[in-house]
Amino acid sequence: MKTIKKISLVLFATLALTLSSCSSDSDGGSGDAAAGTMKAKVAGTAVTTLDITTYATISSNVLILQGNTGGTSSKAFNINVLTYNGVGTYDIGGGTTGLGQANASYIETLVDISNPTDFQSTTWQAPYEGGAKVGEVSVSEVTSSNIKGTFHYMAKKNTGDGALIEITEGSFNIPLD
């Protein structure tokens, strides 16, 4: 009986330690995108890019993140941090000019396989008129070969009705070119 009590005590202590060491993602975190991908919910629907069509590069203090799902019905994210300076959070929109520190877009392309030159493409862009902050990109980890972080933004369709689309729970884990 003493052995069962000791084992129970050890298990309880281990469980308590494990639960107390967990952290929430409310501080931005690094997200949970698989290596080589970007992922997010677009109007509530999960979208994950392919490793082969996803890349990141840094040049002259500009960070470019791009990813695409590929195929004849592709979805793509494009994020540019124009004032990149390492780990930190960058506003999409806002600031004194309304442009913020970053811009982003979400693109859907539909290709008719019987006539591939006749495709439909729709782009939503952020920021949009008014200049208010509409999202942010957070870089949580960067090495000489990889970059990780999170993003979210509201974007406006650049044609037709100008509808808004919400990009939430975004994360990236991309090798740097």
Q: What is this structure's SSE topology?
A:
Blueprint: H1 2-21, E1 37-42, E2 45-48, E3 55-59, E4 62-68, E5 73-81, E6 88-94, E7 98-100, E8 102-111, E9 119-126, E10 135-142, E11 146-157, E12 164-175
Antiparallel strand pairs: 1-2, 1-12, 3-4, 4-5, 5-8, 6-7, 6-10, 8-9, 9-11, 10-11, 11-12
Q: Explain this structure to me?
A:
It is a single chain. The protein has 177 residues and is mainly β. The chain contains 1 helix and 12 strands, in the order H-E-E-E-E-E-E-E-E-E-E-E-E. It has one helix at 2-21, and strands at 37-42, 45-48, 55-59, 62-68, 73-81, 88-94, 98-100, 102-111, 119-126, 135-142, 146-157, 164-175. It starts with a helix and ends with a strand.
Number of strands: 12
Shape: globular
Rg, alpha carbons: 20 Å
Q: How far is the first residue's CA from the last residue's CA?
A: 61 Å
Helical stretch tally: 1
Which whole number gives the mean pLDDT?
85
Write the element-wise H/E pattern from the N-terminal end onward.
HEEEEEEEEEEEE
Catalogue the unreliable spans.
1-28
Main sheet specs: 12 strands, antiparallel
